[in-house]
User: Which sequence fits this backbone?
C-alpha cells in the first residue's frame, strides 16, 4: 500500500499528520506533570481532550504542515513539531517534542527528531533548527546530542518554571547540503 503523504518512517518510528481521533491518547499522555514540567507554561496542565482537540485543529490548519504525531509499533506515542520563525529569523525553525512516559528510554524520540529535521530542511526552506531545553532536562539534551545538534548557548536564568529559575540550553542543527541532510 502506498504510504499517505506527510508520513515518514525509518522502519522503527513513523511521524505522520495528526488524525482527529489522536486527541484521546494525546490527552492521556500529555496529562502528566512529568511531561509538563519540561515544557512552557502555555502547555496546559492538567491537559484535557478539548486541549488536544484544539491543538490538533490548529496543526491541521497550518500550511506548510509542521507538527506530527509520533507512532511506534502502530500506536500514537507523542508529538514532534517545528515552528518556523518570522522576520529576520525566517530561515530558522524551533523544534519541540514529547512522548508518553510509558515510552521513555527506548530511543524513540531521537528517531522522530531525525525524521522531522530531514522534512524541515527539505520542505520548510530553513537552514537552522534549534531547541531550548531547561537545564535540568538532561534526557532531552541527550536526545539532541544524539541527533547531531550542537550546544550553542546557555541563556542564564532565562526560565521560571514552577517558581524556580533555570538556565535554558540552546541546541542547534544547521542545514549541511554536503552532508546530504
Ligand atoms: C525527553 C524525552 C523527549 C526523551 O525521549 P526518549 O525517547 O525517552 O529518549 P531516549 O530514549 O533517546 O533517551 C534519552 C536519554 O534519557 C536518559 N535515559 C535513558 N534510559 C534511562 C533510564 N533507564 N533511566 C534514566 N534515564 C535514562 C539517557 O540520558 C538517554 O540518553 P542515552 O541514550 O545517551 O543514555 C522524553 O523523556 C519526554 O518526552 N520528556 C517529557 C517532555 C520533554 O522533556 N520534552 C522536551 C522538552 S525540551
Assistant:
Amino acid at each position: 500500500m502506498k504510504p499517505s503523504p506527510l508520513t515518514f518512517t525509518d522502519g522503527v518510528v513513523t511521524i505522520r499528520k495528526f488524525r482527529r481521533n489522536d486527541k484521546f491518547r494525546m490527552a492521556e499522555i500529555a496529562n502528566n506533570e512529568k511531561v509538563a514540567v519540561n515544557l512552557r507554561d502555555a502547555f496546559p496542565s492538567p491537559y484535557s481532550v478539548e486541549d488536544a482537540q484544539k491543538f490538533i485543529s490548529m496543526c491541521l490548519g497550518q500550511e506548510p504542515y509542521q507538527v506530527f504525531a509520533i507512532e511506534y509499533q502502530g500506536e500514537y506515542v507523542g508529538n514532534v513539531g517545528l515552528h518556523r520563525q518570522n522576520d529576520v529569523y525566517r530561515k530558522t525553525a524551533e523544534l519541540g517534542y514529547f512522548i508518553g512516559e510509558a515510552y521513555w528510554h527506548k530511543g524513540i524520540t531521537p528517531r522522530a527528531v531525525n525524521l522531522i529535521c530531514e522534512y524541515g530542511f527539505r520542505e520548510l526552506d530553513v537552514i537552522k533548527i534549534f531547541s531550548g531545553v531547561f537545564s535540568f532536562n538532561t534526557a532531552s539534551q541527550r536526545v539532541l546530542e544524539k541527533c547531531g545538534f550542537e550546544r550553542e548557548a546557555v541563556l542564564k536564568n532565562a526560565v521560571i518554571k514552577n517558581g524556580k529559575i533555570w538556565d535554558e540550553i540552546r541546541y542547534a542543527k544547521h542545514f549541511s547540503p554536503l552532508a546530504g541532510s
